[in-house]
Each structure stands twice: as structure tokens, then as C-alpha cells.
Amino acid sequence: MLNKSFYSFLFLMLFTHRSKHFSIFIISIILVFILSSVMFISTSLSKDIQYTLDSQPDFVVQKMKAGEVIDIDLSLIDKIEQVYGVKNVTSRVYGKYFFKPLKQSFTIVGVDFFEEQNSKNLKKLSKKLDMSKFLEKEYMIIGSGVKKLFDKFKYEKSYFFTTPLGESIEVEIYDVLDDTTSLLSNDMIILPKELAKIVLGVDEYKTSDIALNVPNELERANAKVEIILKDDNLRVISKDDMKSYYLNLFNYKTGLFLVLYIVTILTFLLILYQRYSMINSSDKKEIAILKAVGWSIKDILKLKVFENFLVAFFSFSIGIILSFIYIFVAKAPFLMQIFLGFSNLDFSYELTPYIPFGSIVTLFIFYVVPFLCVILIPVWKIATVDVIKSIK
């Protein structure tokens, strides 16, 4: 019975029942918006984290003491280079620098600009990087969060660092990293390695950690064990460990939202079922009239399916569109802090749009099917009885 008259009557019913559908429509949009927002931000952050970590070294070696990371002797580099399969062993300098005016911290990263791997990574981060000009005097490259803080306190061209020895060093700003890299670099200040050592108070013959690559995947497990045996209290962190950590963290937070969503949607469906179970006399008259003019139970159910499917479909679509705008246009305020943690600096990060169509289809099925079931069951019960007698 899918003819022009059917569709005309369908839209007439939607208009007639607009007040009844409005509250359900709004609640549905909110529920879909919340879950799809969590889904969008989780999948996009996971993809961005994996892309970021793919450019990192295979292993990072750290020195531990009393459960804390301490500086490591540079002499260990020679020992690590002797391990079979190990390539591109480099020292890294990093640490926190306390910004007294706001009692906040920057992350200082010291880089050897003559190392090939570091040079490539920096050129990806900074489009203006001219190595010869950068090394003419003491320059730094800063993240967008650091730039905002410097501008606030009128450090527009340079900043005076105070070393642990009480000396003051002026360093000029060479470039600012854009928001597309702020997941990694929001609070970061990149300095030449020797200058970073002075600012952080790292001994000349020590470094923060040691990074290395093992090109052959089959040799990585053995190389990790051999490196650990080279010195006492060494911790070797693999790139795969870091990926697993971040993915598990995002999956854990997504799971918490999913549990809350399931509880909320079940409560919503229960309320919906109870509401439609108490069909009033006008609804019964409506069904009685349809049966009187020759509509079968199948036709009545088909009408209700189409009517409520349109409500569910449009509420679902609007919820998805709003969540896309919230995550990828408005940059997910509040929700971003929940997933990434509350940074000590203002955080502005442009998520890479990633639409998991398979997850959206799954969400649509698990939302629309229960939605239609809890409405059609009471309607079917009313349609199968003698409605004319029941309304007399």
C-alpha cells in the first residue's frame, strides 16, 4: 500500500503528532550527539596518535632511580651501538621549565640539528626552518600554547630563561608551530641541544634519554634484552608499547561513555515503551477509523513504522551532523580535555577528520531497531484487538 495517498497520510500524521514527537526528537538528538562525539574524537585521536608515533624511534632507553627517571651517561651510547641490529642511536635532552608568572611549565626539548632524523622531523613541524639561519644565534621554536602565553606577558620576540645556576639567557623566537601539531607540541620549546642542557641544568656528559632504531622487527625483542643488560636500572620503552598505552587509554575512556550511554538509552527506551503502552482514546479512535476504512493490521503497522522511522532517522542524522561540527569545527571544547587531560597551557588542536562509517552504521542499527520495537509492540497490541468496542 505504498502509494501517493499513503505518503500524504504519513506526512499528515507526522504533522498532527508533532507535539508528541518533539520531545522524543530532541532527546534522541542529544543521545546520538553525545555518543557520536565520543566516537569521532576517540577514533580521530587514535589515528593522529598512531601517525605521530610512527615517526618516533623504535626504542627509548631511560635510567631509573627510586621509580623516577634521571639523566643517563652519554658513555652508554657506545655500549648500545655494539648491540646487533641497532641503528641510529641518538641522545635526547628534554625536561620541564617552570614559568613563574603563572606557575605553569613548558616542555624544553633539546635537538641536535645536524642529526638527519631530527632535521627531517623538524622540517615537518616548522615550514620556515632554515638551518643555517637558525644556527646563526640562539633561537627557539615554540608551540602555539607557549606563543599565547608569551604574547600575554609581552614576550613577543624573545624570552629570558633562568638557568639552575641563576644565569639569565635571552633566546629569540624563530618560529611558531601551528595548531595541526599541537597534540605533540602545544607546550613545547625546541632549543639546540647544548643550549637546552644549560637551561635545564643537564650535565655536559649526560643526557635525558637515548633513542634508537632496530630496522629488523625479528631482532627487536633480543635487542631490548641486550640493552637492559648493559647497565643497572635501565628501562627500555618500545614504540609499540606507547601505541598500546594511548589506544588503551582512549578505549577505556570511550568505554566509560559507552556504559553511561547504554544505561541512558535503556532508560529512555523504557520510558518510551511505557508512554506508548498508555495509548489514549484519540489514538484508539485513529486506529479504529483506519480499520473501518479498510486498513489491515499490516498497513497500520507499516504506517507507524514509517512515521517513527522518519523521527528516528532525522534525529539520528541531526545528532551526527551536530557532533561532527562540535568535534571538527568547534574543536571539541571540554570533551578534548577529558580525553587528553587538562593541560597547564591553553590547548588548541585541529583534529584530523576521520569518519568511521562502519561504526556509524552499527550505531544507527542499534539505535533505530530498539526505538521502533518499543513503539510498535504496544501499537500492535492495540491494532489486533477490537478497537471499536474498546473505545465505547
Report the major sheet: 10 strands, mixed
- DSSP strand count: 12
State the domain count. 2
Write down the overall mean pLDDT.
Answer: 81
Number of helices: 15
Which regions have little confidence, pLDDT < 50, spanning 5+ residues? none
Oligomer: single chain
Distance between the termini: 29 Å
Order of helices and strands: HHEEEHEEHHEHEEHEHEEHEHHHHHH
What is the radius of gyration? Answer: 31 Å
Helix content: 55-70%
What share of residues are in beta strands?
15-25%
- State the shape: elongated
Secondary structure category:
alpha+beta
Descriptive notes:
It is elongated, with a radius of gyration of 31 Å. The mean pLDDT is 81. It is of the alpha+beta class and 392 residues long. The chain has 2 domains: 4-51 and 245-390, no CATH class; 57-238, no CATH class. Strands 1, 2, 4, 5, 6, 7, 8, 9, 11 and 12 form a 10-stranded mixed beta sheet that branches. Helix 2 (18-54) packs antiparallel against helix 10, helix 2 crosses helix 12 (297-329) and helix 10 runs parallel beside helix 14. It is 56% helix and 17% strand. Strand 1 (59-65) and strand 2 (68-70) form a beta hairpin. It starts with a helix and ends with a helix. It contains 15 helices and 12 strands. It has helices spanning 4-16, 18-54, 76-81, 116-125, 131-134, 144-152, 182-185, 193-200, 220-228, 239-277, 281-292, 297-329, 335-340, 357-383, 387-390; strands spanning 59-65, 68-70, 72-73, 87-99, 104-111, 139-142, 158-162, 168-176, 188-192, 206-207, 209-213, 234-238. It comes from Malaciobacter halophilus. It is found in: Cell membrane. The chain crosses the membrane at residues 21-41, 255-273, 309-334, 354-380. This is ABC transporter permease. Pfam families: FtsX.
